[in-house]
Design a protein that fits this description.
Chain lengths: ~160, ~160
DNA sequence: GGCAACTGTAACTATATTGGTTACAGACGA
DNA sequence: TCGTCTGTAACCAATATAGTTACAGTTGCC
């Protein structure tokens, strides 16, 4: 279905910022962790800023950080900020209105797709960025030596 | 998210067949209701046949019909037959393994995406093609005169 | 048997979305 | 005022879906 990684990347980005605590991160740093181009990240940061999830500052010593506490940002907030469509789409071209099924299948499908979207949103609304960071920490402690300095200097250093 | 209408079209197709009762439908008829090309429909019918949701017959007087009763086909069956990916995708390129967040965000994201997929599947598993037809009928009776013969002769005639 | 009506499928094009890249104007701290 | 950032435009590449033509193979019917 989704051929897009926008949600995954956005969660990654905000998790990095929660991890960084209140230190503004440069788009280059974020791009290096996500393994993509800094412009791709800056584009996404603009969308996240429009939804008031991050704040960015231009100029030397600039960067972006969370606009509010990690426990006050849900995955639903992120989803709504970067994925505007629902889970499924209806027909590209409207069905034949001369067919008793075609003329009304859209109504029924919309009901179904609404139920699906609601179910997805219920799941996402119950997970915050703080939860993601918490789920991350056990993995990190076993995978990375604590306070290990990363090889690429602008990649985040493990905390704790 | 989904830029694809495959699920919507597949539900439409199977609903048509349930509506047609046991009469095999030609790909041209189906395409005319969906408002697309017959080859697009035949491609999809092949996928639906592989998942044993429809049976098709070649040759003169051929066509496709449901492989089992409408109440025995759920939207989850259809979803799994035509949309192989989950609701969200992970990063296109794997994140930086030298970053404590990058190296483990995939694990956490996969947990989340599993929860989302499960929620979607729970919704779809509880709706059958028979349910869709039932939800369709009230719309139809108000929108189309009963037993009205469609203008294009190969579009289905309303029943009841 | 032979014809006409179907499906199955290959091959190609069109369209849309996402992601990657370069380039540059403007903001800002030192 | 210089170097370091963000914001953004413009363009290209990659991918997936949809649409189209064409045709081999299957089947019912005369």
């Amino acid at each position: 279905m989704s051929t897009s990684s926008r949600f995954a990347v956005a969660v990654h980005v905000l998790t990095l910022m929660a991890w960084a605590d209140d230190e503004p991160l440069k788009s280059e740093q974020v791009a290096d962790s996500v393994n993509t181009n800094a412009v791709v990240i800056r584009r996404m940061l603009c969308e996240l800023a429009e939804s008031q999830l991050v704040v960015s500052q231009s100029g030397a010593m600039g960067g972006s950080k969370l606009a509010r506490q990690p426990e006050q940002i849900t995955l639903l907030d992120i989803y709504q900020a970067v994925e505007n469509r629902g889970v499924f789409s209806l027909h590209r071209h409207p069905p034949n209105r001369d067919c008793p099924v075609g003329v009304n299948i859209g109504t029924v499908l919309n009901q179904v797709l609404d139920e699906v979207d609601t179910a997805v949103e219920r799941v996402l609304a119950n997970i915050t960025i703080k939860d993601v960071v918490s789920r991350l920490k056990p993995c990190v402690s076993t995978a990375v030596t604590k306070r290990k300095v990363m090889r690429k200097e602008h990649v985040l250093t493990a905390r704790n």
